[in-house]
Design goal:
36% of the residues lie in helices and 18% in strands. With 85 residues, it is an alpha+beta fold. It has a two-stranded antiparallel sheet.
């Protein structure tokens, strides 16, 4: 990952939006760290594939019909079952 660190930057040299977010006094100095981020789709696919909880219920026979299972779970809260055809 690429990273740039700039130390002891005067607040007056920062963009206005940054100064507003930091809320420091005008004579303050700050350290700025800028890092490249992974693409969202790359990060999401990597995170799911490595997560030990991913697919933990795949073998549950009572959830073979996912829509039916969810209707059954939600029925007590919605006042009964609904047939959506």
């Amino acid at each position: 990952m690429n990273q740039i660190v700039i130390k002891h930057v005067p607040m007056a040299e920062l963009p206005q939006a940054w100064r507003e977010r930091l809320g420091q006094t005008a004579n303050a100095r700050v350290t700025i760290s800028i890092e490249a981020e992974q693409a969202a789709e790359q990060q999401a696919s990597t995170d799911l594939a490595d997560d030990p909880l991913f697919g933990m219920w795949r073998d549950r026979e009572d959830m073979a019909d996912v829509e039916g299972y969810i209707r059954q779970v939600r029925a007590p809260r919605s006042g009964g079952s609904h047939d959506e055809s």
